[in-house]
Amino acid sequence: MAGVGVGIMLAALVVANQHTVSQWYQGSGYELLKCITLITAYMLAAWLIIKEPKHVYWLAATIVAVFVVPRSADFSVFVVGFWFQKDALVPILLGTTLGLGICVSVAVLLDVLLSSVTKSAVVRTAFALFVAGQIANVILLLQQIDWLADPGPLWNMGVIIADESEYGHLLKVLIGYEAAPSSFYLLTLFIALLLPLLMRAIRLYVQRNSRSKPEYQA
Question: What does the alpha-carbon distance between residue 84 and residue 101 come to, in Å, rounded to a whole number?
């Protein structure tokens, strides 16, 4: 909860200075700021997966706070944009309440499911997949501001699960689902998923070898 609160406060600060931030780098400042926050959160999450430091709670709270910033900022911009429109207040409040209820329900369900999993490797992989899905959005942001070319989609699964559908939004948040992903997007997703898990495996392998060598020599 502490991470969510800090993230919302940082998002409010970004929204309050949105006009100034948006003018950076020839109008690409807001997108670049979101890229920086996502990359920062990914690096912290990767460190958590690889090292499992002692102060897990504070690191996890920091990761949540950084991840919350771009999402909360986007939501705040949307609300502010429609707040003063006629007859918009009630739909906004109803939609926000319904959305928060769904988010809390999904969060509780995921917590129950992951808490029942006995193997920590499964939980760790699920967390790595979630983080990879978030960092893959950097590719979309860079393409949006023309900092990265768009090679076009490899396929289109919009007929099965559209990006705009309820399932599409849910899968987007959980695993970075894209109905029509590009090669850049998928490559980023897979590298971001495998890199921390592979580095953790290497670290554990080196630790086991360093412990077994003295016993072998003795």
Answer: 24
- Alpha helix locations (H) across 84-136? 89-115, 120-135
| Per-residue pLDDT tens digits for 8-31 | 666 666 666 666 766 777 778 878
Taking the CA atoms of 179, 48, 202 and 117 in sequence, report the sign of the dihedral they define.
negative
What is the C-alpha to C-alpha distance for residues 127 and 46, in angstroms, rounded to an integer? 10
Integer Cα distance of 104 and 126 in angstroms: 19
- Short-list 64, 164, 174, CA closest to 128: 174
pLDDT at 12: 64
The tens digit of pLDDT for each residue in 58-81 reads: 777 777 777 777 777 766 666 666
Domain residue ranges of the chain, discontinuous segments joined by +:
1-84, 117-218
Please tell me which residue, 85 or 216, carries the higher pLDDT value: 85
> pLDDT tens for residues 142-188?
998 888 888 989 999 999 999 888 888 888 888 889 999 999 999 99
| 184 Cβ contact list (under 8 Å, min separation 6) | 139, 143, 148, 150, 151
Cα 135 from chain centroid (whole Å): 6
Phi-psi label, residue 176: left if phi above 0, alpha if psi -120 to 50, beta otherwise: left
Residue 41: count of CB within 10 angstroms of its CB: 23
Residue among 54, 73, 53, 75 nearest 65 (CA): 73
Is the four-CA dihedral 41, 1, 53, 120 of positive or negative sign?
A: negative
Residue type for 123, please?
A: V
